[in-house]
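go over this chain:
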Amino acid sequence: MILQLSSKQRAAIEAGKVRRNRLIRATKQAANQINSDEKPTHYYIYGPSGIGKTYQTEKAVNETGVINHTISGNVSMMALGINLAVIKYMNRDKKVVIIIDDCDEILKDTSNINQFKGILEKSQYSYNKRFHINSIGDEGTLEHDAVSECMTEGRQGFMVDTSNFTFVITSNIKLAYDDTAVEGDDSKKAARARHLAAIRGRCQTKDLDMTKEEKWGNLAYVTLEDGACKKCDEEQKLFILDYIWNNWDNMTETSIRTVEKMARTLHLEGEEN
């Protein structure tokens, strides 16, 4: 087994730590401003998959002690609205941080993006299509009762007031800038870029681009210093991290989950496997 890190690996860990701390600062800023009387500032955190965006975001927000909920962003807009209605129903007018985990599905569709802008800009989620409330569940269930409170007589769909919500959005999609979203181009790609640029304009956006070395360094720091793979000793962790370092380009996944799966294999089957 490898017994110590190389100088390049140590440098990569320091670089990864810098990126990780930038993520932590952003999420704590979002949580700490929850007690302000000002309109909430929402945060959008972009970064490659596998760097622990959601793990670090949840940890940082939990450390502030504010009320928070994590919901998936890989759902339909109606499903997102039901989740928001439930959180509203549970917390009424209490201030809440909502982490939208992996918002890629919503941001693939121009119509969804446009609807999502309304949440960020107008503090209001609107679902304007006709549906039957019983399709959401039986009366007395949390989802049914929450959405029922958000329905307005004489209007189809439902509406959720999100003015007491601060959103922290994580995604693998990098938002376009205004100068890259060219006006006058009517292609679907250009239209989507313009909408994504509008999302950027409505959030504090943190772009966590990482080189291969920085991504490995972030992974190594979490593994060695942040309590991952508790059943592994130091030598086993170093062995796994060194294997990932030397085989990075041939690996189909490189995340903390990868380290944990490799740790189980190492424990059960030995180094050779």
In short: The chain has a mean pLDDT of 87. The longest strand covers residues 165-171. The two ends are 13 Å apart (CA to CA). Residues 72 and 101 are 5 Å apart (CA to CA).
